Every structure is written in structure tokens, then in C-alpha cells.
Amino acid sequence: MEVNMGTLEKLKLVALAPKRKKSATDERRDKMVSQLTEQLKVVEAALGGPAYVRKKIVWETDGEGNRKRVEADARLRQWWQEQENGTVQFAVRYGTKPLEMRTGLAAVEVAKLADLPAMIKTLIAAVQAGELDTQMAMAAVGRKPKLR
Q: Are strands 67-73 and 88-90 parallel, antiparallel or unpaired?
């Protein structure tokens, strides 16, 4: 049985390379960048930009007792606090806890809310450059589930 492969001969055929699994450090960086990007969108919405709402899929029971999947708004927590003196403190969080960037220092302060987007972009660049890898690794060790 002869197969006509005249068209396929024009293509460069190669063996499929195995999918490369990301390292734990890369996974943590990606997670932190996505969380910071989400906070950036929340800040921009607070400053008068387009409203930002993250959606999630939940199960809901209707009046007849049937369960169906529906889309609902996810609850977003802002990572910043406005202080009495007008400054804004932004705490980078890993999970639910603030991430200590230096010993005893877990927040970044800016003069006003309008300065926050630029500061978050700087933090995203720092995470992508690997400047917070050790802090995220230490926070991840504390979050691992304990097996019985």
C-alpha cells in the first residue's frame, strides 16, 4: 500500500519534543504576576477607569431543586490601605498573608492612590526578574499542607 505524500514533503517534520514542566519558582512567579496584574486592574477601576469584576463559575440550585453552573462575581480584596495622613500602603500577599520583602517590612508606601499603578508595575518587574523568589519560597514552605 503506497501513500502519496507529495504535499507533506514540503513541510519540515520533526519528532514531538516532550512538554517542559515549569519549575516551582516559575509557577510562583507566574502566580504572583497574575495576582499583581489583577490588583493593578482593581486600582485602575478605583481611580475611575473601567470597572473590573472577576468572574467565577459556581453551582446554583434553582426553585425545582436542579443544580446548574452559573457565572458569579468573585470577591476581590484590595491589597492597599489608605492611611490617615493620606499615604497609601500596599502589602504584597502570598495567599492570605503579607509577604515580607525585607525582615519586618511587608508593605510599600506611596504618597497617594494615583501613584499606586506605577508602583505595582515596578513590583511586577521585580517579580519577573526574580527579586522576590526567596521570600515567595519561604512563604510557600509555610503553606504546604501537613499530611497525616
A: unpaired
* Mean of pLDDT values over 57-80: 92
Confidence of residue 1 (pLDDT cuts 50, 70, 90): very low
**CB neighbours of 9 closer than 8 A, spacing ≥ 6?**
none
Q: What angle do CA 69, 73, 48 make, to 5 degrees?
A: 155
| Residue ranges of domains in the chain | 23-142
Helix or strand or coil: residue 44? helix
Q: Detail the DSSP E strand segments found in the chain.
A: 55-61, 67-73, 80-82, 88-90, 93-94, 97-98, 108-110
Distances (CA, A) of 86 to 7, 20, 27, 92, 116: 69, 47, 36, 20, 13
Number of neighbouring beta carbons within 10 Å of residue 100: 16
| Pairwise CA distance, residues 90 & 82, whole Å | 9
Distances (CA, A) of 23 to 3, 20, 37, 104, 133: 43, 9, 21, 28, 12
On average, the pLDDT of the chain sits at 89
pLDDT at 139: 86
